[in-house]
Amino acid sequence: MSVVHRLTAxxxxxxxxxxxxxxxxxxxxxxRPAGVTHSTSVTSTEDCHSISTFxxxxxxxxxxxxxxxxxxxxxxxxxxxRYVFREEFFDISxxxxxxxxxxxxxxGCPEVSLxxxxxxxxxxxxxNDTDFCxxxxxxxxxxxxxxxxxxxxxxxxxxxxxxxxxxxxxxxxLVQEGLKSGFLHHATAKLSCGKxxxxxxxxxxxxxxxxxxxxxxxxxxxxxxxxxxxxEDTISAxxxxxxxxxxxxxxxxxxxxxxxxxxxxxxxxxFLLSDISCLRPLLNYKKKYDVIVIDPPWExxxxxxxNRYSHLSxxxxxxxxxxxxxxxxxxxxxxxxxxxxxxxxxxxxxxPHWSVKTLAEWHWVKITTAGEFVLPLDSLHKKPxxxxxxxxVQGDVKEALRKPExxxxxxxxxxxxxxxxxxxxxxxxxxxxxxxxxxxxxxCLELFARNLQPGWTSWxxxxxxxxxxxxxxxxxxx
Length: 478
Description:
Strand content: 15-25%
Strand order of the largest sheet: 1-2-17-15-16-14-13-18-19-12-9-8
Radius of gyration: 24 Å
Protein name: METL4 protein
Structural class: alpha/beta
Organism: Phainopepla nitens
Shape: globular
GO molecular function, one term: RNA methyltransferase activity
Number of helices: 13
C-alpha cells in the first residue's frame, strides 16, 4: 500500500509504491526478445486490449519503434509487459544540506533534545518576540548573516514558529514507526546509487506544444467531440490530443505517441493536455468533481529569474472555473509554497472567491530514506515541508449544514511524510490519504497535474510529463 503507517499525526507514504500500483501493465500478442528483465509479480488484468494504432509499441523513445517482426510469439498467449517507475528517482539517502546535530530528527543526536527545543520555541511564542526568534534560528544555523529581515521573511519565521513543534513531533513519531518496520533504514544500511545513475531531465516540449495549439484552426462547438476513448482506431494527430479529454476506460495501460515521444496512460484515467486558456474541453466533459486538487505554478522571484517554468499571477489563478467543475460539498485541496503571501491569498481571497470554506492546513514533510529531513527544519532559505490548504465548496444553507455520511471530518492538521521524488514538482499522491474523508468511487480532478492516476481526471499543459516512458523500466512476465 502507498500508506505505510497511519498515526494520529498523519501518514508515512510510499510514493514509489503508489505509482507502481497504478497498473502499468500492457497486454500484447508478442513478447519482448531476450534482454528484458523478468518479473513474476505482475498482477493480471481483466481487460487486455491491444495498443491503439496511433500508439507506439513499448520501447524506449531513444531507440527505433519495436515491430512485430522483431518479436517472439508467446504461443498464442498475450504477453504481459509491465512498467515500473525507476526507483533511483526516490533514492534520497542523504539530506540536500546537512543539518546541525541539534536540528537532526533521528535518534543518536543527544546534544539538544526535542523537549529543549520545544521549550525554547514555547517561550518565543509566549514572548511574541520576532527578533529573538530570528536570532535564535541564526544561532542554530551558525550563519554569517546580520539579523536583518524583510517583512516576508519575518512572516515566514512567525509561521514556522507556530507549526514547527507539530511538524517535528509528528514526523519523529512516523519516522520511528518507519524505522521499526524497515521501510526506512539508517544511512549505513544502504549505499546510495549516486547521482550518476539518475537519468537527466527529459525535455518533452509539452508546454510549448500547448502554446502552439492556440494557432490551430478553431473547431465549431457542435462539431467538436468532448471526449475520445483510447481504442484501436482512434486518435491519429496531435490536434486530437489537444482538443478534447482523452480517456482510457480499459483495465490496462496504454502507450500513446506524441511528437515522437512515448507516454504511458494508466487504466481508468482521463486527461486534458491544454493551456489554461483552453479549458473548454474540460467543461464540455460535463463531469462534476467531488475532489479537486490544485497545484498552481506560483509566481516567485526564482522562477522569474530562471525563466524555466511558466507561472500565473494571483488574478489568473482566480479565473480557474472551480465553481463550474465542483460538485456540491466538493473537497478542494491547494498546494501552497511557504511564501506567506500565497498562503494568505488562498485563504483570504481565492477560496472565498470560489465559495470555498477553509477547513485545515496540512503539511507535506520530505525526508530521506534514513528518516532525516531533506533540508534543515530551521533553514532560512527553504523548508523541508510544503503546505496544503483544504476546504469545502459551500452551496445553499441546507447543503452547507448537511454532513457527508460515512466519512470522517477533515482534521485541522495532518502530516504527509514521504521520501520525495528527485524530479521537480512530482508531488506525493493524495488519493490514499483522502480516502477516509471522502465517499468511495467519487469523481476526482487534479488541476496543473504533471502525471496521471487511475480514477482521476487530470489537466495541465504538462499533464503527461512524468508519464514519459523513459521514467519507467520495462519488466516482462511470461
